[in-house]
Amino acid sequence: MHRETFTCAILDERKTFRLATLKVRALIAKKDPWHSSCRKVEEVVEIFDRANEIWSQAGVKFDAEVLERRFDPTVLSGIVQAGFRRLDDAPRLSEVTGEDPRVVTALYVHSIGGSNGKVFRPSKTVLIVDDTKMPASRTTAHEIGHLFGLEHWLDSPPPLPSDRPPTHLMARTQPGTELVQRDIDHVREWLASGWGSALSGSG
User: Fold this and answer.
1) At what angle do helices 136-147 and 41-55 cross, to 10 degrees?
2) Pairing mode, if any, of strands 125-129 and 13-18?
3) Is the pLDDT of residue 88 over 50?
4) How much is the pLDDT for 163?
5) Are 151 and 170 in contact (CB under 8 A)?
6) Cis ω on the peptide bond leading into residue 157 (within 30° of 0)?
7) Closest by alpha carbon to 127, among 101, 106, 156, 149?
């Protein structure tokens, strides 16, 4: 947490937050016969610049270190398969992410079989593919929203269809980037509850 503050206008109400800066390690898979990402370091840096613009609505900033990385092919395949099967976590993912509970890992791969991305909450990891149906910055910001506990719906139990309008960041397969006050309050409470403990659950 930084002492810098951030003020934004949401629905004509002014909220003042202490700016929360979260460390992110963005890893671009390279030199893998099946799962290498086509993205470059400069592109992912720009993705996080734009994701920061989106999350500035909640006074959240991501301090992203972007690296190209060659992974053990077996480990990377297991992660991609877990993403494809929509599992809560991936085997041996800690070999990629490490054990630091206060660092988010964003892993960029070629594909996970149709989805734009996947979140593994227990491992504090978001998985982003090359050919996203939405802008990559929006997809990255959306998946991080899932990491924070936001869903495609506002009400519980989830309505069918989802009650998120297309302008919302957390709307499914829509271009929206808006965080409504309920989202912002949830994320700020989540951050205040303790970064490490908040990420310890599955889902």
Assistant:
1) 60
2) unpaired
3) yes
4) 74
5) yes
6) yes
7) 106
Could you say which DSSP state residue 43 is in?
H
Picking from 119, 87, 111, the residue whose alpha carbon sits closest to that of residue 36 is: 111
Q: What is the pLDDT of residue 20?
A: 87
Strands 125-129 and 60-69: unpaired
Classify the C-alpha dihedral 67-91-51-56 as positive or negative.
negative
- Which residue, chain included where needed, has tokens 């929006």? 138
Domain topology for 5-192: Collagenase (Catalytic Domain) (3.40.390)
Per-residue pLDDT, 153: 85
Write down the domain spans for the chain.
5-192
pLDDT at 200 (0 to 100): 33
Could you tell me the two tokens for 127? 């998985």
pLDDT at 1: 30
How big is the CA angle at 176 (ends 201 and 79), to the nearest 5 degrees?
40
From CA 154, how far away is CA 179, in angstroms rounded? 11
- Specify the pTM: 0.85
Residue 2's pLDDT band (cuts 50, 70, 90)? very low
CB-CB neighbours of 196 under 10 Å: 10
